[in-house]
Design brief:
heterotrimer, A mainly alpha (207), B alpha/beta (305), C alpha/beta (342), A: 207 residues, mainly alpha, 7 helices, 81% helix, B: 305 residues, alpha/beta, 6-stranded parallel sheet, 11 helices, 61% helix
Chain lengths: 207, 305, 342
């Protein structure tokens, strides 16, 4: 029973959604139905966010109470959370909120993203080896694309950006398309399994 | 909660089916049906028909061969290593919402892994970026511990919500890796720029890493920094691979048949196109003759006109 | 010994080289000329087809994490639109995207040549300078009579001259225009919750979905810029600056799919290859790939002071460092495999 009801709801909802997809989208009742469903999705997501926030605070208050060397991080989290939430709730156009956004959130987030440059270099050094003929081709292509995407490539040889563009537009795009088609088919297959109740692991417990 | 998850999963099917029908659909029809979407309907019927047919033959007991997927075979080794070392296991279900099928596929694998960590009495940690994924993951891990007969080993803090901020989430997970040094890291689901940030940190702390995503641009990063990587559809196949249910295995075969059908159609269209263009270059009227008409019909059908 | 050291090279040494490669050119201000690639040329030509008074929708589907690559696109795109009298409606599918648009308009540094700085000061605008010969810190310039006074944070002013080699800038795009009016040339409808729901809503009924703007909380029907916008088809193009889920893919499938509206996009360099199939199938009308794409767009639109163009020199050196380390790694591998006997 615990499983049957969700599976039944899934099946019925799926059939409705699929049928509506093939109906004329300009019919008023179709529009209204879709808007209604989509609004529900937004509302559920908003409530789930609350659930997440409560968990976050609960877990970190718990860690703070246990008090060990890592508790300081929980304290920082709680203080930051409360400061930015309260200032945003009071007035999200206020100078304090803008200051925190411009001078704390923007640089911190950018710093995390900028780590990519360093990690790409170390991962490439470790993993990019011309062990086979195919790997050597990949390596040469990678050099051309890396040089072609920056001005120094054109300064070395004017044709590098053009070759780089060709590699991106044809071999790379074809490979991407193949992976996308494969993944889309996999997604359709998983959807069908969920709709028909074959795939139930995500409901928890036994298969 | 489960109903919410299901509702979201339905949107994904719509998303993928509409991905096949993105061409001009602007003509407004007075009919009750969206005539321009008939090719999508046909494609969907053929694809679903193939998958359902293969599920049926698998149910009847026909043997379905599934090639070995090294990344999935490595799960047990990674868990065993973590158990031996007495270190925790980190499971990252991606950064996408629950409506994304990669997340659902990942949650399904999480169920299998949680059962094993319950049996081995190994610590498991599942940080989440999406609140809905968090509540689903929590439920799945809890149920898996119950199913493994170890509800006492389950701890609410195993599954945590961190933040919806992409790089805040990365900072949280990386911080955990550096502090706790997990022995096995699993990154399965939808990932974007954080893929390499996570995988390189995991590599630095010496963990065995298994990754999998259907986001094509992130696959190279995982390949270079992880020990095993599930590429694209292998992530979706994981549930069936790990499961003993013949119907799941059947769906995999159906999926491959669908792929074959798409390949045949693509090759036929390429041939048509070549012959059609040769016809034009030889000076014939392109819209005349059986070939020209066939191509025009195919072209307008594909555009949904 | 050396081989073993190179084989097990500490990643921090690589990080150090990378840091030097990025920091040094940034400090010296060295500039390499940027040539637009065919992909960026195609993007720019789509924009150049737009006519004066056309309206475009700019969706900021990113957050501060990827701003280093994507914010220059926002700045260059909006600048091009304002320069060419193209009207811009901005929105965001990501919560912080809206704040980044606000930053572009009111806070971000917009570098200008010396002549432009003098012109703007004469119009009473706030102009700032970073002078190498002085402290190298930000100073506000005030014109008092025929003298230029450089004012620091502590409000102490000092007379100085405007050198050509100093860097002049204003804060926010708004500061360089006199004639850009909110509600007429530009409107912000802010962050909209729901992703797909919002796109599908705008496809069907813009006013019903959006309802009000963010600044005044007034109906979009009250503003001349959106008075005649019924749905997505009424926009001449959509430009989504996207760094992940809820962004380019959704705009292509749910925006371009049902309406045929031109969708342009700017994405991070790492994710660009993923969207190339949309470009070749023409579902996407133009794509800017990462900081290089932004710099090329700046070059294509003659915006030489842009943030992205400046970033291309450090990026060039960073690419060379990566290539160097890959070659080093392979050199070690080949030496070990073919020249070292067990």
């Amino acid at each position: 029973m615990k499983r049957s009801i969700p599976i039944f709801i899934t099946f019925v909802s799926a059939v409705i959604m699929i049928v509506f997809y093939f109906l004329n989208q300009d019919i008023e009742s179709v529009k209204k139905f879709q808007a209604g469903i989509l609004n529900w999705v937004s509302i559920i997501a908003a409530f789930a966010l609350l659930l997440g926030i409560f968990n976050l605070l609960f877990v970190n208050f718990y860690k703070l109470r246990r008090f060990n060397k890592d508790s300081i991080y929980s304290l920082v989290l709680i203080v930051s959370f409360l400061t930015i939430t309260i200032s945003g709730l009071v007035d999200d156009t206020s100078a304090t909120y803008s200051w925190m956004f411009e001078n704390m959130l923007r640089p911190l987030s950018s710093t995390m993203f900028s780590l990519l440059a360093f990690y790409v270099a170390s991962a490439a050094f470790r993993a990019f080896r011309a062990k086979t003929k195919e790997a050597t081709f990949l390596l040469v292509a990678a050099f051309i694309v890396m040089l072609g995407r920056v001005p120094v490539g054109a300064m070395i040889w004017g044709k590098i950006p053009l070759i780089s563009n060709w590699i991106m537009a044809y071999p790379a795009a074809s490979a991407q398309s193949a992976i996308m088609i494969g993944a889309a088919l996999g997604a359709v297959s998983v959807s069908l399994k969920i709709i028909l109740g074959i795939e139930k692991t995500y409901l928890g417990g036994e298969e | 909660m489960k109903q919410k998850v299901l509702l979201f999963s339905l949107f994904q099917l719509r998303f993928y089916s509409s991905a096949f029908a993105t061409e001009a659909e602007e003509q407004i029809s007075n009919s009750f049906f969206q005539v321009s979407r008939i090719p999508v309907l046909l494609g969907l019927i053929i694809l679903c028909g193939l998958i359902l047919y293969c599920i049926q033959i698998a149910k009847k007991g026909q043997y379905i061969f599934i090639r070995k997927i090294a990344g999935l075979n490595a799960i047990d080794d990674a868990l065993g290593r973590a158990t031996e070392m007495g270190k925790p296991v980190l499971y990252v279900p991606g950064i996408m919402e629950i409506s994304d099928l990669q997340t659902l596929a990942s949650i399904s694998i999480l169920g299998h892994i949680a059962k094993k960590t319950a049996c081995y009495e190994t610590d498991l940690y599942v940080p989440n970026r999406d609140p809905l994924v968090f509540s689903t993951a929590q439920e799945v891990v809890k149920e898996s511990y119950l199913a493994a007969g170890r509800p006492d080993a389950f701890n609410e803090n195993m599954v945590e919500y961190l933040t919806t901020d992409q790089f805040g989430y990365v900072a949280g997970v990386n911080g955990y890796m550096v502090r706790e040094e997990p022995a096995a890291n699993f990154y399965l689901g939808g990932f974007y720029a954080e893929s390499l940030l996570l995988a390189e940190t995991g590599n630095a702390v010496g963990a065995i890493q298994v990754a999998g995503t259907a986001i094509p641009s992130q696959i190279p990063f995982f390949i270079s920094a992880c020990d095993y990587t599930l590429i694209g559809e292998e992530l979706y196949a994981a549930g069936a691979y790990l499961s003993d249910d013949p119907r799941s295995k059947g769906s995999l075969k159906g999926q491959d048949m669908g792929k074959l059908a798409i390949m045949v159609v693509t090759i036929l269209l390429i041939l048509f196109n070549i012959v059609y263009n040769m016809n034009i270059s030889s000076g014939n009227d392109s819209s005349e003759g059986l070939l020209g008409k066939t191509f025009n019909v195919l072209e307008s059908g594909m555009k949904g006109e | 010994m050396i081989l073993k050291f190179l084989k097990t090279l500490d990643r921090r040494i690589i990080f150090l080289f990378m840091a030097i490669a990025v920091i040094l050119p940034t400090i010296t201000g060295q500039r390499f000329p940027v040539q637009p690639s065919p992909m960026t040329d195609d993007f720019a030509s789509v924009l150049k087809e737009l006519k004066s008074n056309d309206t475009v929708l700019l969706s900021a589907d990113y957050d501060p994490g990827s701003q280093a690559e994507l914010q220059p696109m926002t700045l260059a795109f909006m600048k091009y639109c304002f320069d060419n009298n193209i009207k811009v409606v901005t929105m965001a599918l990501w919560p912080l995207g809206s704040k980044l648009i606000e930053s572009a308009l009111n806070h971000d540094r917009i570098y200008i040549p010396r002549e432009k700085a003098i012109e703007l000061m004469s119009k009473g605008k706030n102009v700032y300078v970073i002078s190498k010969k002085r402290s190298g810190a930000e100073e506000k310039i005030e014109k008092r009579g025929n003298k230029y006074i450089f004012i620091r944070d502590n409000n102490q002013g000092e007379e100085s001259i405007l050198n050509n080699e100093d860097k002049y800038y204003v804060k926010g795009l708004y500061s360089i225009y006199d004639d850009i009016k909110y509600g007429v040339d530009y409107l912000d409808i802010g962050y909209k919750v729901g992703g797909l729901v919002v796109i599908q809503g705008i496809v069907n009924d813009f006013e019903e979905t959006v309802k009000t703007d963010t600044l005044n909380n007034k109906s979009v029907l009250d503003y001349p810029i959106t008075r005649n916008i019924k749905n997505l088809k009424d926009f001449s193009a959509v430009f989504t600056i996207s760094s992940g889920n809820m962004g380019i893919k959704e705009w292509v499938v749910y925006g371009n799919g049902p309406t045929g509206v031109k969708v342009l996009s700017g994405v991070t360099a790492v994710s660009a290859p993923e969207f190339l199939p949309y470009l070749t199938s023409k579902q996407l009308s133009g794509l800017l790939a990462g900081l290089a794409g932004a710099a090329e767009f700046e070059a294509a639109t003659n915006y030489y002071e842009g943030e992205a163009s400046k970033g291309m020199t450090p990026q060039s050196y960073a690419h060379l460092v990566i290539i160097f380390f890959i070659l080093l790694g392979n050199g070690v591998y080949i030496t070990e495999k073919y020249f070292i006997k067990e």
